[in-house]
Amino acid sequence: MNTTTLTDEQLERFGEEMDAIRRRIIADLGDEDAAYIRKVVKSKNGFEIAGRALFYLPPAWPLAVAALSISKILDNMEIGHNVMHGQYDWMGDPALSSRMYEWDNVCPSEQWKHSHNYIHHTYTNVLGKDRDIGYGILRMDEDQKWHPYYLGNPVYALLLMIFFEWGVAMHDLEVENLVKGRRTMAENKALHAGIMRKVKRQALKDYVLFPALTGPFFPLTLAGNATANLVRNIWAFNIIFCGHFPAGVATFSQEECEDETRGHWYYRQLLGSANITGGKLFHVMTGNLSHQIEHHLFPDLPARRYPQIAEEVREICERYGLAYNTGPLGKQLGSVARKICRMALPDRPRRTPEPVVAEPVAA
Amino acid sequence: MNRILRSRAVAALTSPHGVDRYLEQLNPMWAAHEVRARVVSIHREVDVAGHPAVATLTLQPTSTWQGHRAGQHVQVGVEVDGARRTTRVFSISSPESRTGDRFTITLRANPDAPERQGVSRFLVERARPGQMLHLSQAAGEFVLPDHVPEHLLMISGGSGITPVMSMLRTLQRRTHRGRVTFLHYAQSPEHQIFAAELDDIRRSGHGIDVHLLHPELGDPNLSPAFLERLVPGYREVPTWACGPAPMVEAVRAAYDGSDALRVEYFKPPLTRSDGATGAGGGDVAFERSGVSGENTGATLLEQAEALGLKPEYGCRMGICFSCTSRKTEGTVRNVLTGVESSLPGEDIQICVNAPVGDCAVEL
Hints:
The complex is a heterodimer.
Chain A: H1 8-28, H2 31-54, H3 61-84, H4 109-122, H5 153-162, H6 164-170, H7 175-179, H8 185-213, H9 218-244, H10 262-271, E1 275-277, H11 280-285, H12 292-297, H13 306-320, E2 326-328, H14 329-342
Parallel strand pairs in A: 1-2
Helix pairs in contact in A: 1-10, 1-13, 2-3, 3-9, 5-6, 8-9, 9-14
Chain B: H1 2-5, H2 8-13, H3 20-26, E1 35-46, E2 54-61, E3 73-80, E4 84-91, E5 103-108, H4 119-126, E6 132-135, E7 151-157, H5 161-173, E8 179-185, H6 195-204, E9 208-213, H7 224-230, E10 239-243, H8 245-255, E11 261-265, E12 283-286, E13 291-294, H9 300-306, E14 324-334, E15 340-341, E16 346-349, E17 353-361
Parallel strand pairs in B: 7-8, 7-10, 8-9, 10-11, 12-17
Antiparallel strand pairs in B: 1-2, 1-6, 2-5, 3-4, 3-6, 12-13, 14-15, 14-16, 14-17
């Protein structure tokens, strides 16, 4: 649990510095950002068409799966996630509008925007409010009370990884609250109907129509489409789990976030997120969620801007003595895996809590 | 071909994005549902130094264009001001068209529009042949009836000539045998749109009386007495009137509630208040619920709630985009960034935007 290390004045100035970055980028949005996202959409369409077509050539099956996996990853991450955040709403293009965009995923965009944009991004890492802490299934923080159920933590995580898009689709149903009797089936009726509509469309496309179009190769195409969905699930799960669960990422209590100032909101977003280092292509394939910190500070700025402002954010953090959690994929993943296993067991006797203020940027 | 592209099978295969997202990348003129057009040529109708120019644009629409009835208008969307698609409505000036037919729009560059944001300024001053435009289908009830009356009266002012010109051209093409009285008000002969064509029509006779009037040069103003002299018993003659608001109001008064009159006017733009702070002043209209109130200067969400509306919202701090609504007209100021925006038909987050002067929102 975190307690604020900055004074109120410092928090206010910190917030103003973040607001200034935001204003500067917004004033600069234009042709380059539009050209970028359209190029990504074009690549995604190219990979998708190539993937679907290569299933007619059975020896090219691995290539087909690879192309379709890339298409689905781009669709869900650099395009879908970011477009639905309203990052490109300023363009006024209905094809890139947060109100209209629907992604290649079984979760209906309308429900995802509620659980993700509103709940997760507003109450980031606030225990009891942010349902992304463990997704109602896992124990990911010491302050979640231990229960023998959590002995299965690593198994649940593995299952969530494999069925990630289904987990995301069911996220808004709040099954854990249903089990605890805090939510009724009646409340879920409309949501459930929405999910089923989307599931039917996705399943019809990937598991009936496209396989059928390849005639005798039906089983191969079906398996290929399922594999592409699986690859996307595994990749998205791993990137997303590195966003908030590596060691050192702070969580917050509801009390300390009551009547929160804008400065404190920024502060919480910063300390509640973690980045992954990597090359340009890697960042694109993660939807720039490798810059989870910048994304949480400025969720509605086009993601291609995150690498540009990361240096500045880091410099500001250094001045305020705030931790900027980053590291290569392997390190962050290892840290997340250790946490998943550790949280399966009851807490060991209290050690000194992990320091919130890290040594000024060492990574 | 179009029937296949619009089939349920193609919709299922291209779900969730739709076939147009793929077609447009192969060729911008290919579409199954959306309507787009390529600018074929641009012809300056009026070019008086120191006055806004008027141009006629010939458009080649996609095969999805369903044609138009004489007098109808079309929404034209184009990217201005750094990839920001902005949409305006223009009357069609060419005679009635059928599916996929070329047609023309004639428009005056709006001198009050900011240089980089104005659609009319862009189309008249900067567009070149080859430019792609986003269109709606033709719409509007101000049309020539299928059964044309024996005598018609058309009254127009300034660029309000476009829909009645479409009607006049359509009548000529249909070789209408009856009588047409065509009355148009312009600033001066140099400002006369379609001058040469109207001159030809006047000389050729064919039962079309063309009266071009320039009150600033001493021609009579529009009045019941003048109309009575021109067309005795004019209140009983089927009449179409289109032009700026003062002219249309004068025509309305002259017809005294007669059913024979049909009008269309170019809606005057909402005015921005002169308040030094930019806050407050003017009226805020919530169009879907039909509620309006005095602009208090608070955010649109707060003002809507104060009027008893319950718009959807999430974070109330500009992050989650749950409250995004379409502002149809007026200026809003983003309370976080202080940036003002006057683009019509723009999606805004009502929780962080406050109206400046008059404003209308689709809520």
